[in-house]
Specification:
49% of the residues lie in helices and 12% in strands. A three-stranded parallel beta sheet has the order 1-2-3, with helices on both faces. β2, α2 and β3 form a beta-alpha-beta unit. The chain is flat.
């Protein structure tokens, strides 16, 4: 519903199950927050807000560790933000989307 928020996490932004879920959410007017390391991915293209992770110039295993840690930090931060809001406050996630949107790569 419009009272929901999909947080989709995919390092590549191309994971089929994540894209399928995000596409279904989009069709149902559910806002999508994507956490990915690929700003040009299908997930980033359909998301309402994109938080980029990872870095380049590293070995594959180091890059995967770096991506995982940055994704975990973002999720932990989102949880802390939501916890700081009153439980049951309907517009808490809209506040969060507004804050995140100001830092998004989307226009």
């Amino acid at each position: 519903t419009k009272n929901d928020l999909l947080v989709a996490i995919s390092s590549s932004g191309k994971t089929k199950e994540i894209i399928d879920t995000a596409t279904l959410a989009q069709k149902n007017d559910v806002p999508i927050l994507a956490i990915t390391s690929n700003r040009f991915s299908p997930l980033a293209k359909i998301a309402d807000c994109v938080l980029l992770t990872a870095s380049s110039g590293m070995s594959v295993s180091d890059r995967l560790d770096e991506t995982f840690m940055s994704q975990k930090l973002i999720v932990d931060t989102l949880c802390a933000y939501m916890r700081s809001k009153c439980i049951g406050e309907k517009d808490a996630y809209y506040d969060l989307l507004e804050v995140l949107s100001s830092h998004s790569i989307k226009d």
